[in-house]
Amino acid sequence: MEKTDKSMNETIKETTNQMMDQTMIMGERLINTKTACKILGVSSRTLRRWCKDGFLPYFNTVGGHKRFSLKEIKKFLANNHVNSDT
Asked: Taking every annotated instance into account, which residue ranges of this chain make up the domain Helix-turn-helix (predicted)?
């Protein structure tokens, strides 16, 4: 079942608002791996592979954790016609 853009945007907003670990860098909202996986509807293993293969840009924290730009996640979804079921 294909979701509308409005539904996808509502899901993204709801998911990111529920997560406590949100960061801002240079005016961009950054989300953690768990949130990115939920928005994209993929496992953490798939997300790590996409990062390694250069499909998704990310930032590393001082502790070595990945953070993703919400803007880039939305762009990735739009450009790759990924249907988020979450």
From this structure: 32-80
The pTM of this model reads: 0.65
| pLDDT score at 20 | 39
Provide the phi-psi class of 54: left if phi over 0, else alpha when psi is between -120 and 50, else beta.
left
Rg (CA), the chain: 12
Convert 12-48 to b/e letters by CB count within 10 Å (16 or more is b).
beebbeeeeeeeeeeeeebbbbebbbbbbebeeeebb
Distance CA 84, CA 86 (A): 6
Confirm whether 20 is domain-assigned: yes
Interval 7-61: pLDDT, tens: 777 776 666 554 434 556 666 789 999 999 999 999 999 999 999 999 999 988 8
Count how many residues are written for the chain.
86
50 in a structural domain: yes
